[in-house]
Amino acid sequence: MRTYSIGTKLRSCLLKYRRRSAQPLAPFLLTVILSVSPYAPAHAAELAPVSLNSVIPLPGFVGDFDHFTVDLKRNRLILAAEEHHTLEIFDLKSGERLQGVPGFKAPHTLAYVSETDEIFVTDGEAAACIILSGSDFHEVGRISLRPGADAALYDPTSRIFYVANGGRDEKSSTSSITEISVMNHKVVAQISIDGDNVEAMAVDHAHNRLFANIRDKKQIGVIDLTSRQVVARWTAPGLNRNTTLTFDPIAKRVFVAGRTPGKFVVFDATDGRVVANMSCVNDADGMVWDPVTRRIYVTGSQGLSIFHQDGPDQYRSLTQLPTNGGKTSLYVPEVKQLYIVHPKTEIDDAALLIYRTNP
Amino acid sequence: MSKLVVKSVLTFSLVLSLVPTVAHAQKAQTPPQDPSTYMHVNAPLAQSLVDKVKAHHDDIVKLGIHAVPPGEKDNVIIANITRSKNGKKSSSADLEKLATNKATAVRLEKDKVFDLLIPMTDANGGNLDGGFVVMEVPYAKASNEEEALKIGVAIRDEIQAQIPSKAALYQP
Fold first, then answer.
1. B104 touches chain A (CB under 8 A)
2. What is the distance between the alpha carbons of residues A185 and A191, in angstroms, rounded to a whole number?
């Protein structure tokens, strides 16, 4: 609110100045800027694409967290506390911790499916996809998978939950992407991948394709969803341990982040051409594309990198902020909040961080 | 007995001779408390971070943290390796740089250093109210602004990772 009022005051002063004087603006502008106290923090906040809104401490949580999902009907944020072996439920707006849901070995990726009011959970150590009731979290189904069930993607259009499983966790050089129907809890197809570590995925509906990070190969696999075959493999200079991935279907661009070194790479989805290759935070495990602000948020243990898409082939780094080691994130546009969770650190308990996104 | 008296007189004389020196030294350490340029600041964590980080960085020659202390309006030096600078209000030039929200490096040919100003948050990316670090990187350690900023940003990251919150800066 203060930021808005100072911005308004500045604009108003400038307009008055322009009306009454033809003298150079710079000295006047500096005087106005410095007279607004405390100018610097307010102006810095005005420029920042996000502001930290609240920190919800999670004392007693040791070890890594993994991904989030959201139940908008009940205003719940749901988090996989991987090494605490629970799902954690928070109030979406305030971040208040509501309850923990035990019964997991290593929960990783979550999807709240509004059509069935169920939560789909990949559990790598249980080698399963576990399905919970969205209302009271009791288990309503369990689908056996290969060990290492971890990365997953829910596609509301096809109502398919794609789960990467197998590979290195079962000492195999190949992985599977299992297609699960969220409507009947059945496995409808298997896609075989030559690679032992399949990570984040995205669906290209226009061409019935799936993009998947094949991390051990430093490649992005392009999978034809009709033939269920990998039809192309892309890579980029310096791309290593590529874990996160998302897709802009309008500009037809695939966004990928490599972990070490931190690299943000943009591919042309039509031919795999690299159109941008920039530095970002190391150890990225979360990525969000917001088509409204045209921003890409990349979260890794080193912090949060925010990029702006100036054009399909033009990207600009807006800022990099620390997140106390928080790697995974979720942006919920309905409340304009970005959620990041960090594990216990030397200086702090584990915590859920809630950032407000600024226009 | 006479020896004891002589010894006491000598000791007393020595003490008397030192008083003005000690008093002068104390006076010299006390910054001029002109309220237009200084305010009282107590930021123990910030000070310990500055001291600790500078102790293992011979790649910089100065280090300080600026911010608006709780309940205050002015942006000041809240911690500096030269403690007499604590409380000094930030210059308009520094505030102008801070307003860009970007790290800046300026060559100071006279001192052969790059003068850096780098915005800073807490470990979660939380606002420190105009928080920034200043430091100087000698030409011997960096051949251009980009190299100097690389050193400076790494040091900023090291400090910021140890700040749990804005309030913590002003606590032991």
1. no
2. 17
